[in-house]
Automatic annotation (TrEMBL):
Signal peptide: none
Occurrences of domain MHD2 (ranges): 1077-1214
C2 domain ranges (all copies): 871-999
InterPro entries (UniProt xref): C2_dom, C2_domain_sf, Glucose_resp_signaling, Munc13_1, Munc13_dom-2, PATROL1_C
Record lineage: Eukaryota, Fungi, Dikarya, Ascomycota, Saccharomycotina
Any Pfam family: TPR_PATROL1
Protein name according to UniProt: C2 domain-containing protein
Length: 1329
């Protein structure tokens, strides 16, 4: 026989994909040929109806097939339990039944074909009773009268009741139903449909379980006199439906096992034994009439071939002589012969092994024998018009596909969403498949799939409902057995045809996806999941088809990506077309397009989280196209707008440009996510950098305006009792925070342009802080200079705080009375009257410092500084020029002290201060505080002067004496001396480190000072550092001004007059502890009163700062009392003049007076201890004890131990310490003593702007200082100076002078040697003497 040449197995290359086209498997037969072959089948079946069987001698029962071999025995046992599709035997009932797979329910076929009239009447009676009882039972179950414990069985019963007994269209069918097999078939259909709705493990096992229960129910409803044979057949029916597990050999290629899945769609034979042939019926014989009305399913035949009944009747007459058992048997013999000669429908090449091929041949041979036995006749065959095949087509596969094509079209003509077949359809499908030998499960599946694809499924896109119905039918009906589901085990022809159909379905899926992708940018986004679920479940999951998937899906991915690209391109063009084409194009138009794109991409990303087919990321593909297109076209559109505005002499508003930048930045971020290795085509920072800089300048102007308005409108009132600073602080830092947050919101790449813009803003802020602090300090100076000191408390400025609330915040020295007596003979001055604005200003400055640190949380200034530094380095390397940062240079002028200045007082001392004047501008830079009664005053105050870069300035420094009382001159102050200093930036390194300067006054004495130079840098850290240092200096200055107002009384208490009152004029009287503490009580009360006043308005931290500064002044006052200063010996003051204290005293020191006795020394230290522990620390309510016991206090504690030693012992100690001191100096100068050098450098660096540039930097320097806290140089110097000062009190002034002179000479030699050594090594000289 002819056949379609099979596709050769092989690779899944692009060439092989072409062979997967179903066009190769389209029917190659004429419709007329299919018509005739099908008609002959119809007639053949008709003449073999049981009533036409003659019980004569010429029609004998043929013998059973030979069964000598073991395989034959196995075949017979397997065939007896094969699967079949059961359909109602009612001719042309017109009802649709879903295709449920069941076993041949009765081994002997339909009951009416094998019984006599008596048995048949009894059978009808039993069936009538059974149906009535079943209907009653189902009704009781429905209304809940009957309880069914098994929920699944109850659902199946209700479904069965609804589909049959409650279905009016089946009333006639039920009434005429005479076979219990049909009843079970209907239940099987309903149960199968119901089970498909619930989740079960093995649906076939569960279906068998439910059918078995139903059979049991039927048995329980049978009448009592039901014959045992009827009951046994019901039991046998249930047993036959039980799925069997095939052996390994059967699973591989057992025809019986494959046959078990073959849908025998219409049972026509009496098969009491599957090896038996048709048996004659011992009944009245009726000859076939060949009338169309008598032939089953003739009407259905007319419908599928669209032929009128008259022509069909005529054609029946024509083929009646051809459609005979003799003809069919002859064709079966011919096919059997071809099969044995390897000329069957399948060849050896269609199987993986020869064994599989032989197994198929044996199976097919046995099936042929069964058919031959069923249609065998005795006698001479009648003459046939020709010898060609009349029953079995020469191309059965194409013929069957064509027939199925017609059937499927008819069945789905009214419903294209599901596949349900009428009995007529099932009849032709079953009969044709069996007689034409295409009922092998894999063959039937492939052919049925092909017929569906070229008929109702022949379209560009997938019909999901109908295609899912197709697969459900094939897998649950044709391929019902697990052993034949794996398509890899199929023969090559079936497998190739199946894969061709799958390829066609996959193309339909892709077409549907492709079409849906065109709606990606629609308001309602397309839904891909139904198609993808179907594709993964039915197409890509197929075992045989998977070998082609890599090549197929590669093409699919390429196609889908191309569609996404074109869809995105079309969407992008639609957006561009909406842009104005004339000069009205603005940034906002581009902004709108960019925002629409970002919005669409975000929506697509959220909507489609998983890639199509696990390979095509929709959001990535869309983003790649749209972001790239916008990046390419964006610069051109922006330049066009800029040219138009330039021609009109207009500027683009920076805000509009930066908003557009932010949107483009979003596009760039998306682009970078999808194009990891590609660079964004549009340099945003270069295009928008000029707008950022312009925006920064606008912000800087607004910041300056805020500072000016704040200063101008400031009333220096606290916001409320909880918020003790003024509103200006909020306004200033609100502006600063908002400005930096705006820059942060741009999400600008950290580059030079961004850093430059931030610096512009921070510089304006730093300048504003400088202006604010200068004004604040001047206001405090003015307030403290002219306010009265005779009243208590603060001025009433409308505060609503009552006295009880104020007392809560006061400093209260409540434990002091336990340590000292409350009585005092000394008059205690009233506390100073600080104005409210003074404390508010101090709170403002302190709060600004805290807020300044918070700015670092908004922007990483260190990162910006690094960017600027790297940019400048690259630029300098490129241009070869030294880059100049800022336009200004900052000088920090520290006035430390003076020595041996001219004395204007009657005691030879002066109340001195220093004023600094810029000679060029003839303006005063500042003036120090007044240090009373000293020819060696110490001011230790800093001033800042800003000059243009490389500008020189002559600085005039005047030392003034301020007379008091009757000594006040007409001019108000006397000039003690003056000196000038030229500030030349070339003479100072601009590292911020101090450069010591000693200037000789024009009258007498020296002025000691330090000059530090720092060049303004366009660096955010510099701006922040300058702001922080400015605020810190302002706070320290104001604190000192505040403390200075109550220090005069401290100086009065720590005086020789008070010592004289308790120790006698010569200090020889030993006072009691009570007398010592009584003398200090006035100071306790005075300090307590002043701190209470300040505590009402200052914050807790500021109050502690005031206390620490007051304590530091007390330590200095005690130090002045305890020992003469070492500078006295340095200038031989002892030989120059006599102090008032030295009158009549042999051991008096000029400028100091009489040396104190041990009683006086002890008295002073007891005062210090009481103040430190009892007053300031105050049981932990004051500053920490560690802060109070500072270095200065620890140095004073050395005095008692050396004061008791003789001059000889002290000189010996000096001799021991001097080498150590000079060794430390030499190591520090050379840098070999790392610890001392580090501490020295750290102390200097902490004062620089860059040392204050960040919290991290300040913390780092503080930690370095703590690590290098053991300063041997400072310790040795402090110890030496204490000893030398003690020696002065013992009359060794000349010795001390020689030591100081020797120290000075030694220092010069060390510095010269160190400098020479460094120069010889090519090193930079860092140490400054």
């Amino acid at each position: 026989m002819n056949r379609i040449s099979s596709l050769k197995s092989g690779d899944a290359s692009d060439e092989s994909l072409g062979s997967l086209s179903i066009s190769e498997y389209s029917p190659k037969v004429e419709l007329e040929s299919v018509y005739l072959y099908t008609l002959r089948l119809l007639v053949l079946e008709y003449i073999n109806k049981p009533q036409f069987k003659q019980n004569d001698r010429n029609r004998q029962s043929p013998p059973t097939p030979p069964s000598s071999s073991s395989s034959s025995s196995s075949y017979s046992s397997l065939h007896s339990s094969r699967w079949s599709l059961s359909s109602s035997p009612l001719e042309d009932s017109g009802r649709s039944v879903s295709l449920g797979l069941g076993k041949s329910l009765f081994s002997n076929g339909q009951f009416s074909r094998s019984t006599n009239k008596t048995n048949y009447s009894e059978h009808i009676r039993i069936m009538t009773t059974l149906k009535q009882r079943l209907a009653t039972y189902l009704y009781d179950v429905t209304i809940g009268r009957k309880k069914v414990t098994n929920a699944t069985f109850r659902r199946c019963l209700l479904k069965f009741n609804n589909d049959t007994f409650m279905n009016s269209s089946l009333s006639t069918t039920l009434e005429n139903m005479s076979n219990v097999e049909e009843l079970i078939v209907y239940f099987t259909k309903s149960a199968n449909n119901e089970l498909s709705k619930v989740v079960v493990g093995d649906i076939q096992k569960e279906l068998f379980k439910q059918v078995s229960k139903f059979v049991g129910l039927l048995q329980s409803l049978l009448p009592t006199n039901t014959p045992a044979s009827f009951i046994n057949k019901l039991t046998a029916c249930a047993d036959r439906m039980k799925p069997t597990k095939p052996s390994l050999k059967q699973k591989l290629f057992s025809n019986e096992k494959r046959r078990s899945a073959t849908p025998v769609m219409y049972e026509t034979s009496d098969s009491s034994s599957m090896s038996a042939v048709r048996k004659p019926v011992a009944a009245l014989h009726v000859a076939p009439s060949f009338k169309l009305d008598d032939i089953p399913y003739s009407n259905y035949f007319s419908e599928i071939f669209n032929t009128d009944s008259i022509k069909v009747q005529q054609d029946v007459i024509k083929v009646m002589k051809e459609s005979t058992n003799f003809t069919f048997s002859r064709e079966l013999d011919e096919y059997s012969f071809q099969l044995q000669s390897d000329g069957g429908f399948l060849f050896l090449s269609d199987f993986r092994t020869e064994e599989e091929y032989n197994s198929w041949k044996i199976l097919e041979t046995k099936e042929i024998e069964l058919l031959k036995n069923e249609f065998r006749t005795i006698g001479r065959a009648p003459s046939v018009p020709n010898s060609k095949n009349l029953i079995m087509p020469s191309d059965p596969r194409s013929t069957f596909v064509m027939l199925m094509n017609l059937i499927i079209k008819k069945e789905c003509s009214t419903n294209m969403s599901s596949m349900e077949f009428t009995p007529g359809a099932l009849y032709f499908m079953n009969t044709a498949a069996r007689y034409w030998r295409v009922d092998f499960p894999s063959t039937l599946a492939a052919l049925f799939y092909t017929a569906s694809n070229i008929s109702v499924l022949h379209s560009e896109e997938i019909n999901l409902a109908l295609t899912e119905g197709l697969f459900t039918f094939i897998k649950s009906t044709i391929l019902h057995s697990d052993a034949i589901v794996d398509t890899r085990d199929w023969n090559e022809m079936d497998r190739r045809q199946w894969n061709a159909n799958l390829f066609y379905t996959s193309e339909q899926c892709v077409n549907s996806l492709d079409n849906l992708l065109t709606g990606l940018y629609a308001t309602t986004k397309p839904k891909f999941s139904p198609i993808l679920v179907f594709y993964f479940e039915y197409v890509s999951a197929d075992p045989s088809f998977q070998e082609h998937l890599p090549t197929i899906e590669k093409r699919i991915v390429k196609r889908l990506r191309r569609t996404i690209f074109k869809t995105s391109e079309k969407y992008y063009k639609s957006l561009i077309m909406e842009l104005p084409k004339d000069e009205t194009l603005e940034f906002k138009h581009i902004q709108n397009i960019a925002e629409l794109i970002v919005r669409q991409l975000n929506t697509i990303q959220k909507r489609y989280t998983k890639p199509l087919l696990d390979k095509v990321n929709i959001s990535f593909e869309c983003a790649t196209m749209l972001t790239t297109a916008m990046a390419i076209d964006g610069p051109n559109m922006i330049k066009k707008i800029e040219r138009v505005l330039e021609s009109k002499k207009k500027d683009v508003p920076p805000v509009d440009a930066l908003e557009l930048y932010s949107t483009f930045r979003e596009l760039r971020d998306i682009y970078r996510q999808v194009q990891l290795k590609e660079k964004f085509p549009f340099n945003l920072e270069r295009a928008f950098g000029k707008y950022l800089k312009r925006f920064a300048k606008n912000i800087a102007l607004k910041i300056s305006e805020v500072f000016r308005n704040s200063i101008k409108t400031e009333t220096w009132e606290k916001i409320n009792d909880d918020v003790r600073y003024s509103k200006s602080v909020l306004d200033i830092f609100k502006m600063a925070n908002e400005s930096l947050n705006i820059f942060k919101s741009f999400d600008w790449d950290i580059n030079y342009r961004f850093a430059e813009a931030v610096v512009i803003v921070l510089k304006a802020f730093s300048d504003g802080i400088q202006l604010y602090c200068d004004m604040a300090v001047k206001l405090v100076q003015k307030s403290l200079r002219y306010s009265s000191a005779s009243s208590y408390g603060f001025e009433d400025r409308g505060s609503s705080t009552n006295e009880s609330e104020k007392r809560k915040s006061k400093w209260d020295f409540h434990e002091m009375k336990k340590a000292v007596r409350s009585s005092s003979s000394s008059a205690i001055p009233q506390p100073y009257k600080y104005k409210t604005e003074t404390c508010v200003i101090l709170n403002d400055v302190d709060t600004m410092i805290a807020h300044l640190e918070e700015l670092e949380n908004i922007v990483d200034f260190s990162e910006l500084s690094k960017v600027i530094t790297e940019h400048n380095a690259v630029k300098q390397k490129t241009t070869g020029e030294t880059l100049k940062d800022g336009v200004y240079q900052l000088y920090t002028i520290r006035i430390k002290s003076a020595s041996d200045i001219k004395g204007y007082g009657s005691n030879g001392l002066s109340n001195s201060s220093v004023s600094l004047i810029n000679s060029r501008e003839k303006s005063e830079i500042g003036e120090t505080k007044v240090v009373p009664k000293s020819n060696n005053p110490e001011w230790d105050e800093e001033f800042e002067l800003q000059l243009k870069r490389d500008e020189k300035c002559t600085l005039l420094l005047n030392v003034w004496h301020h007379p008091t009382g009757n000594f006040m001159s007409l001019t108000g102050a006397d000039l003690c001396g003056r000196v000038s200093l030229v500030l030349d930036p070339k003479e100072f390194a601009d590292d911020g480190f101090p450069n010591p300067k000693t200037l000789i006054l024009d009258t007498r004495g020296e002025l000691n000072m330090e000059i530090a130079l720092e060049t303004e840098r366009m660096d955010p850290l510099f701006c922040i550092g300058r702001s922080y240092r400015t605020l810190s200096r302002a706070r320290d200055k104001i604190l000192e001004l505040v403390v200075n107002k109550f220090t005069p009384f401290v100086s009065f208490v720590f005086s020789r007059e008070v010592l004289k009152s308790i120790c006698g004029g010569h200090g020889t009287r030993k006072p009691s502890d009570e007398e010592i503490y009584d003398a200090i009580v006035p100071l306790f009360d005075y300090l307590n009163a002043n701190l209470n006043v300040l505590g009402q308005e200052l914050s807790h931290g500021l109050l502690f700062m005031v206390m620490l500064k007051g304590w530091l002044f007390i330590i200095k006052a005690a130090d002045i009392m305890l020992l003469p200063q070492v500078d006295i010996a340095k200038h031989r003051l002892a030989n120059a003049r006599k102090s008032l204290w030295s009158i009549g005293s042999s051991n008096s020191v000029s400028g100091y007076g009489r040396a104190l006795t041990e009683y006086e020394i002890d008295c002073i230290f007891k005062w210090l201890d009481a103040l430190c522990v009892d007053f300031f620390y105050n049981q932990g309510e004051g500053p920490p004890l560690k802060a109070l016991q500072n270095t200065e206090y620890q140095t004073l504690l050395l005095i008692p131990s050396f004061y008791k030693k003789s001059a000889l012992e002290l000189k010996s100690e000096v001799k021991r310490l001097n080498p150590l001191y000079f060794q430390n100096i030499a190591e520090l100068t050379s840098g070999s003593n790392v610890a001392v050098s580090r501490r020295f450098t750290t102390v200097e660096r902490r004062k620089t702007i860059m040392g204050n540039s960040s919290k991290g930097k300040r913390k780092q320097l503080q930690e370095e200082l703590q690590k290098a806290d053991t300063d041997s140089l400072q310790q040795s110097l402090s110890t030496l100076n204490i000893i030398l000062r003690v020696l002065i009190t013992k009359g060794e002034t000349d010795y001390v002078y020689r030591q100081l002179h020797e120290r000075k000479q030694k220092m010069k030699r060390i510095n010269v040697a160190s400098s020479a050594d460094k120069v010889s090594k090519g090193q930079k000289i860092n140490y400054r003497s």
